Amino acid sequence: MFIIWGFRDLDTDLGTVDYLHCNRCNNDSNWRLQRTTSWFTLFFIPVIPYRREYYVYCPICHWTTEVPKEEAKRIMEKRKGLALQQK
Predict the structure, then answer these.
(1) pLDDT in tens, 23-32
(2) Taking Cα atoms as reference points, which of 13, 9, 10, 8 lies closest to residue 56?
(3) What's the predicted TM-score (pTM) here?
């Protein structure tokens, strides 16, 4: 019997952050917030998450900037507050 194990990153799009200018592609667009979770896998099934990182990225050229967890939470709280105001 053999065991197949490994590692895998899964990305989750958390929504729009803000309308920003990208210095790489020189476009203005609504940047997105993304969470990348690194998993330990067993038989290709994600079993144990061992790292989470947050990024904001340009949706045109996909240039990313890592943000701290606290900043990502602040951005998500701000988005929730705006969504509640629009209802």
Answers:
(1) 899 999 999 9
(2) 13
(3) 0.78
Rounded to whole angstroms, the Cα distance separating 63 from 67 reads 13
63 CB-side CA count, 13 A: 13
Question: Residue 45's beta-bridge partner residues?
Answer: 42
The yes-or-no verdict on residue 87 having pLDDT over 60 is: no
Q: What is the pLDDT of residues 9-49, one digit of tens each?
A: 999 999 888 888 998 999 999 999 999 999 999 998 999 99
Residues of 71-84 as b/e, b for ≥16 C-beta within 10 angstroms? ebeebbeebeeeee
Question: Minimal CA–CA distance to 43: which of 2, 81, 87, 84?
Answer: 2
- What is the rounded CA–CA span in Å between residue 16 and residue 58? 10
